[in-house]
Write a structure and sequence with these properties.
The chain is of the alpha/beta class and 264 residues long. The chain has two domains: 84 residues, Ribosomal protein L30/S12 (60s Ribosomal Protein L30, Chain: A, 2-Layer Sandwich); 172 residues, 3-Layer(aba) Sandwich (Alpha/beta knot). Helices cover 36% and strands 19% of the residues. An eight-stranded parallel β-sheet has the order 5-8-7-6-11-9-12-10. The C terminus is likely disordered.
């Protein structure tokens, strides 16, 4: 098994396989009912993580010496556990608004895997669905999975092959779509009520939201700032928007989201 190849998006997509490292991610992966292809265990780690590894099917465990594990691992300080998994059924492909009930945070062209993983984690914690455009960082990249802290395994993430058609479908469903963008008639976040099925679009810091997507967003919203900086990090902007939804609901999230927030 060559994790070097699985570090390439093309190879992950061809094999529909990805990997991640560490005990916490494996614990979350198992907690949400997923079954690994293989868990590589460095010599000695089977004792440290004995209780966790008892939850892994015996035929999926593969003990390896330090010399082999060091070649598999991509971490600077590996814990000695590396999990190989098939693509997750819970990471859906969506094409229209009806497939994403509730509030949606749509990421457009956000290519930093750490930002994508952070948004996935925040959305899961606050009860939103994160939807990614096809040119975002891959949800299965090791850095994305690590930044999600296991939230990827919870099933609140989707990818969308045709963002323009997807966003147009919200209007047909009488749902609002807001672009996080400084426009002619932008609304200030905090100055209006969020509905339970709104969608907000956040682009990357460098290029923002593509013009073709701005054209299908009937509304725009800005986050009030001091003016000392030009913009916010995409993950931070997304988190502020999602928290505003919770604040407008009285500062509460669903029982399920609350449980995830406590755990993550």
């Amino acid at each position: 098994m060559q994790t070097g190849k699985l570090s390439l998006r093309k190879y992950r997509e061809e094999t529909r396989t990805f990997f991640f490292e560490g005990a916490h991610l494996l614990e979350e992966y198992l907690r949400f009912g997923h079954r690994p292809k293989t868990v590589f265990v460095r010599d000695g780690a089977e004792t440290t993580y004995a209780e966790l590894l008892r939850r892994v099917p015996e035929n999926a465990l593969c003990g390896v010496p330090e010399s082999v594990f060091s070649k598999l691992s991509t971490e600077q300080s590996p814990q000695g556990l590396l999990t190989v998994s098939g693509y997750l059924d819970c990471v859906r492909t969506v094409s229209r608004a009806a497939e994403t009930p509730g509030r949606v945070l749509f990421l457009s062209s956000v290519r930093d895997a750490g930002n994508v993983g952070t948004v996935i984690r925040t959305a899961s914690s606050l009860g939103w669905t994160a939807v990614l455009s096809p040119d975002c960082a891959d949800v299965y990249a090791a850095k994305t999975v690590r930044a999600s802290m296991g939230a990827l395994f919870a099933g609140d993430t989707a990818v969308c092959a045709d963002p323009e058609t997807f966003l147009r479908s919200f209007d047909a469903s009488s749902r609002r779509v807001f672009a996080a963008f400084l426009g002619e008639r932008e609304l200030r976040l905090g100055g209006f009520d969020l509905r339970a099925d709104d969608c907000f679009v956040v682009g990357n810091e460098g290029q923002g939201i593509p013009p073709e997507l701005l054209a299908v967003c009937p509304h725009s919203v800005v986050i009030p700032m001091t003016g000392r900086t030009e913009s916010l990090n995409a993950a931070v902007a997304a988190a502020i928007i999602m928290w505003e939804g919770v604040r407008k609901d009285g500062g509460t999230v669903s029982d399920l989201a609350s449980a995830r927030l406590r755990h993550l």
